[in-house]
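Lab notes, practical 5.
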Amino acid sequence: MLNEPDESGVIRAVSAEIDLGIATLDAYMLPDGEKRLGIEKTGLALGYTERWFYNRTKRKSKWLKALQSKGFTGAQTEVRVIRQSGDGEFLRGSSVSKTISLRDFTKLMAYEAVVNRNFDAIVLLAAFAEVGVERVIEDAFAGRSIDFILEKIVHYSKWTYEELEQVLAENREDVRSLHPWGQELSGRIDPSL
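Output from the prediction step:
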């Protein structure tokens, strides 16, 4: 059955390839709908070797600690790829791949782009951001909820929505207390003061 791990505890998944021009990413969908990416091609997509991800995460390095401080888990899930024929029948034989979550992949790309100024990571972030912006705008015009974008912003800023609201309220109070004589805030400085 597709929903249960096989005898070795490996989760079964279906796969797809994402062509990036100079490299490809192996994408996997698990029975519960979760989507993950293969670690071997992750290194290639960022301009490194197939073993790059494995080599960078197998030991505690400064690089890994810094990435983990940004919320990167590095948790890997092994999946067994189920092969299908053109008519939808399952074929015998499969392969096992190690995968990471989309969130970890995004954090890895962002870290590589910002900290290491990795050009390949910058290009991938820009491409994925453009596609994401298009989706948000299409959903907004279609009347579908776009609350998911706020959840992503909150996650990536590492603040909860309530913490952000509290900080903004405190900032407004500070500005009011510092502004002379409670005058209306216009953004311009009164030269007569």
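Observations recorded by the TA: The longest helix spans residues 119-142. The mean pLDDT is 80.
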